[in-house]
Amino acid sequence: MIELRFHRDLYRGESVDAAAKALAPYATAIDRAEEPAHWILRVAASNPERERRVAGEIANRALGITVRGAG
Amino acid sequence: MSSLSEVASVDAAQRSVALTVDASLYPLGAIYGAAYVFLDRCYVLLDKPDAAHVRVTLSWKKGEPPEGALVALAGEFANELLSCAWRAKIAEESRAVIESTTARALSGAMGAPSLDDLEKFEFGDEAFEDPLGIAMSWEEKYGKNKKAAEEKKEEAGK
Fold first, then answer.
1. Cα of B41 to nearest chain A Cα, Å
2. pTM here?
């Protein structure tokens, strides 16, 4: 399982949600959690390489949506 | 001045490189801009370890990175970051000029003034001040054909 920590000052919550939703079909599980400064996603997939790829794509998508929203 | 090895750390096991960026030197918009450029080449994750810094983690997408590729990636990101910060600064400095030019262009595109607008406009008889002689013709200003110009003026006055 890979844990992704998205800082609230850098990522919009809706962007993180949208990214997790878009990549959910490629993961076996995506758990959400919250901390005062971070949104947290725990990503599990069928094998470690796939897990890494899905987590990376979620991170890129969350950043992409945040940046386009900020512009 | 920090060198790249001071601000970047390679994690070979994770196939990633992390850079710590001073947030007082690089605005968030520039960090976003540089990160966005790298989305197609690697996985990008931003974090804020403290109020003054942003940590950028770039992870290799497919397979094993060639030797030195992660450090090169960090270097390219640093260059892109500098470029984005510079462009942001230029945009900020020229904002007033861009806004006034756009406003003038838009007001011009609105078409000819209406009769109400013309009614409000002040058409005074007083000549405007022209201390530099910009409104004068070449002949009037430099006097080469001053006489001819004066005659021309008199004729026009009649």
1. 10
2. 0.72
Spatial neighbors of B63 by CB under 8 A, at least 6 apart, are: none
The answer on pLDDT for A71 being more than 80 is no
Mean pLDDT of B82-104: 88
Decide yes or no: CATH 3.30.70.1130 for domain A2-70. Answer: yes
Residues 6 or more apart from A52 whose CB is under 8 A from it?
A2, B59
A5 CB neighbours in chain B (<8 A) are 47
Dist. CA A44–CA B110, nearest whole Å: 58
Q: Say if A57 is an interface residue toward chain B (CB within 8 Å).
A: yes
Q: What digits encode the pLDDT tens for the residues A36-66?
A: 999 999 999 999 999 999 999 999 999 999 9
CB of A33 within 8 Å of a chain B CB? The answer is no
B4-96 CATH pick, 1.25.40, 3.30.70, 1.10.3470, 1.10.3720: 3.30.70
ipTM (interface pTM): 0.93
Partner residue opposite B45 with nearest CB, options A52, A53, A59: A59
